[in-house]
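Protocol step 4 of 5: obtain the predicted structure for the target chain.
Materials: sequence only (see below). No template structures provided, no constraints applied. The aim of this step is simply to have a reference model before the mutagenesis design in step 5. Sequence pasted as it appears in the construct record:
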Amino acid sequence: MAAAIADRLRQDSDLLRRTQIAIFQFDDAQRSVQETSNRVDPIRHADPEMAWDMIEALEVTKLQGKVYPICNFHEIFKRDPILSRVFPPPVAAGANGAPGMPPPGPPMPGAPMPGEAPSMGTGPLGTGPLGKLDNLKGFFKR
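Step 4 output (structure tokens):
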């Protein structure tokens, strides 16, 4: 697969440019997520007054702006027969009816039972289904 991708990128300079941009966006988002996750743990242990100030200093909107583009890589590469396999589109609608969500599989260890409210990042950072982003759930909502 890697050889096929390399051949494809050598053949199409526009595809190479889009791939370079995507790699930069991914690295930038990954770096921002890591920096933000390092700043989340002290918030958990801060007094409530100070915690609000620390949450505002996280600049979640800025982080959201960096993470969002990588969610659309499937759109950027959908016309390429090789890279579209690397970035497949999300499932149209899962069994739970939520657009873009795959059908539910077997529950993960520690996952809430159906109908039970999910935990909002109470475990160690990076142990949930979203990895390091797991403990940032709810920060993107206004």
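Step 4 remarks: Residues 106 and 113 are 11 Å apart (CA to CA). The first helix runs from residue 2 to 11.
Proceed to step 5.
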